[in-house]
Design brief:
There is one protein chain. By secondary structure, the protein is of the alpha/beta class. It folds into five domains: 115 residues, no CATH class; 93 residues, no CATH class; 95 residues, Nucleotidyltransferase, domain 5; 216 residues, no CATH class; 87 residues, no CATH class. Helix content is 60%, strand content 6%. It has a five-stranded mixed β-sheet, sandwiched between helices.
């Protein structure tokens, strides 16, 4: 029973029992002799004298460690593992025996072998008591972790760490700092949420990705959001912040690869970002993406504000960038309630109403400063006279000087004409009923006409000297003649020098004004090109119009096959089948009353019409997945705004990604049945914990 073959046969079926180990220890190692065939080596039974634990196996023609064979639970030793053949090279037997005897594994097994059969009853009781104590500690620790996770699931705010640290303080938790525990637990929640989102993405047919600028500075520049449809529900999921790259296409391709979307490239149907998109570089990046993802189209997302996009486009000029930086100081200065009240008071004197202003966006700030310029200047002068704190006085003086600066006033008037047109276009695209690709083209033509009017309204003859008048020749002559010691010749010489200086200054000012004017005209062209480029792909809007009830009567008579032919071919939709299915829907009174693609898609899920209308079902999923601009209320929620709001509260958190994810994905956490267990498992496996979390 102590042969190597017999022991290995038993081990393959089940672990050795304590009784079997006692018997094997009592019998000792099996040391048979065996002949070696077709080899130059010779076996000698004297080999067994090298160590007490050597045993032989005639079947394998090799020597093994009897102690490890009996004791090792993992069977991972090089002497007894099923993959190994033991010591078959007897020429270096002594060296291999000494090496194995010094190994840590052999020492551990030797200790276990020595304890076999000694005080079995006492050790069983001690072991049982130890297991009970261990499991009690595990239960307590997991209970605390559950409370911490529930704290995250309930509400994430600026004080959530204080609540978690209080829970830890009231428990017998391990030595690590409380803040470290909170941060590591949040990171575990984040990883579990990402895994759950990844599994949902694998179940979807289509996805869209968005990259949006979240911060103006720092390493966290772009927020990555993915949008998909699952069982009639639309999900916009925040995934992470990514560092702003030189080439956006490289980030998009890398993140899609991380989500395993590159395995099914037709799943990606659109991507969008709020960066500058009018240069050749953007078109090159688009080609890189479409080379791998042929169905992906760049579209304008409903969450992207046109005025902000246009502001970034115009800020490629240094002067414009400086203007917006100076403009932001007005909003920051007047964010104090005391100064807002003073501004309201100054405006009331000038019979201006509606001065309770929100300084949230640069578009609003441009309008406010332009409309209430005199009131703001009066308010600043009052602050300079009354205020005693030097930093505030310095800020007020700087802002007051901006209101008399010709360069600042020029750009203020210019953007006060530009931004209303941008807001008008955005509102038309977002809230207009009966939306279609043709409507977009009409709105774009109107917008371009307004921008051309702004370009023509720039006064080339506007003289900067009107804002900062220079002294007349007579005044300069009188000022010079006051000096008693100056002769007539000296006066004439001074007059000539002064006239020359005035001509130089006037020429420089005129050139500066011309430069500003040309720059403003260039910005008008850039804005037009930017808007045209963002709406160059509008086939998806025509596709969305097919399921808008306001077009049913029109399309029942004339189906717009030519308008949707390109995009239906791209997504491999049968245009004839789609036409027949939609005409059937148009003729049904109960279906024609359904407003919007999302409700119609949910109706098809609920009534099991997905097989009856397969092409329409695909169409609805594509439309709902794209973050396009429509007038449907259900589509007009934006994850980007929630991300930016959560980002402001995440300053003290080690992982901004984790904090934002925990703030946004409460619904995902609550509907996952074993969410807490998944988090605890991840939390325990990531680092070497001093606490016990796994039951024995």
């Amino acid at each position: 029973m102590n042969s190597v073959s017999y022991i290995k046969f038993i081990v393959e079926s089940k672990p050795l029992s304590e009784g079997t180990k006692i018997k094997l220890k009592k019998v000792g190692p099996h040391r048979p002799g065996f002949n070696l065939v077709n080899t130059t080596q010779a076996f000698n039974t004297e080999f067994y004298k090298l160590s007490k634990w050597l045993c032989g196996c005639p079947d394998r023609k090799a020597l093994f460690c009897y102690i490890c064979l009996v004791t090792d639970k993992t069977r991972s030793g090089p002497w007894i593992d099923g993959v190994s053949v033991g010591i078959a090279n007897f020429e270096e037997l002594k060296i291999q025996v000494e090496k194995h005897q010094r190994s840590k594994k052999h020492m551990e097994n030797s200790l276990g072998y020595a304890l076999i059969g000694s005080n079995i009853k006492d050790r069983s009781k001690e072991w049982a008591a130890m297991v009970i104590n261990h499991n009690e500690r595990v239960h307590e620790h997991r209970y605390i972790l559950n409370k911490l996770i529930n704290c995250v699931k309930d509400e994430i705010d600026t004080n959530f760490k204080t609540k978690m640290e209080r829970i830890i303080s009231e428990s017998s938790f391990y030595v690590a700092s409380k803040e470290t525990i909170c941060d590591e637990l949040l990171e575990s929640v984040y990883r579990v949420c990402v895994d759950l989102i990844h599994k949902e993405i694998q179940q979807t047919d289509y996805v869209s990705v968005e990259f949006n600028e979240a911060t103006n500075s720092g390493s966290l520049d772009l927020v990555f959001i993915i949008r998909y449809e699952l069982s009639g529900q639309i999900f916009e999921r925040f995934l992470k912040f990514v560092k702003k790259p030189e080439e956006l296409s490289s980030v998009i391709l890398q993140e899609l690869e991380n989500l395993d979307i590159d395995d099914t490239p037709n799943k990606l149907i659109s991507y969008s970002h709020d960066g500058l998109s009018l240069t050749c570089a953007h078109r090159i990046e688009h080609e890189k993406i479409t080379t791998q993802y042929a169905c992906a189209k760049f579209i304008h997302s409903y969450s992207h504000k046109l005025d902000l996009i246009i502001q970034r486009a115009a800020s490629t000029f240094k002067e414009v960038k400086i203007f917006f930086a100076n403009l932001a100081t007005f909003a920051k200065f007047f964010s104090h309630q005391k100064y807002i009240a003073q501004l309201d008071k100054a405006a009331e004197k000038r019979h201006l109403r509606g001065t309770k202003i929100k300084w949230n966006f640069d578009t609003q700030t441009v309008f406010i400063v332009s409309l209430h310029k005199d009131s703001i200047n009066e308010c600043l002068n009052n602050i300079i006279q009354v205020e005693t704190e030097r930093p505030i006085v310095a800020k007020a003086v700087a802002l007051s000087s901006l209101l008399s600066d010709s360069n600042f006033i020029f750009w203020l008037d210019f953007f006060n004409k530009v931004f209303p047109n941008c807001d008008r276009l955005f509102n038309q695209l977002l809230y207009h009923e009966g939306f279609s690709g043709m409507k977009v083209l009409q709105y774009l033509d109107i917008f371009k006409g307004h921008m051309k009017s702004v370009e023509c309204s720039i006064d080339l003859k506007n003289q900067v000297g009107d804002n900062s008048p220079t002294p007349t020749k007579r005044q300069r002559t009188e000022n010079v003649a006051i000096k008693e010691e100056i002769t007539i010749d000296e006066i004439d010489l001074t007059r000539v020098k002064q006239e020359t200086t005035d001509e130089i200054i006037t020429t420089q000012l005129v050139n500066c004004e011309k430069k500003r004017t040309e720059m403003a005209k260039s910005i008008c062209s850039i804005i037009i090109n930017c808007v045209e480029d963002r709406f160059s792909n509008i086939g998806h809007l025509s596709l969305a119009a097919l399921v808008q009830s306001s077009f049913f009567a029109k399309y029942e008579v004339f189906f717009p096959k030519s308008e949707v032919a390109e995009i239906t071919t791209l997504h491999k939709l049968s245009i004839e089948t789609l036409k027949n299915e939609l005409l059937t829907i148009y003729n049904r009174t109960e279906l024609s009353k359904i407003e919007g693609a999302i409700i119609l898609l949910q109706y098809m899920y609920k009534n099991k019409l997905t097989n009856a209308f397969p092409e329409t079902f695909k169409l609805l999923k594509i439309i709902c997945t794209m973050p396009m601009i429509t007038c449907e209320p259900d589509r007009c929620f934006t994850t980007l705004a929630k991300v930016k709001d959560a980002f402001k509260k995440a300053r003290e958190c080690r992982s901004t990604d984790a904090f934002v994810m925990c703030s946004l994905e409460k619904e995902l956490m609550l509907r996952t049945p074993n969410f807490n267990d998944l988090v605890i498992r991840d939390f325990c496996q990531r680092n070497n914990r001093n606490c016990d979390f796994e039951y024995k």
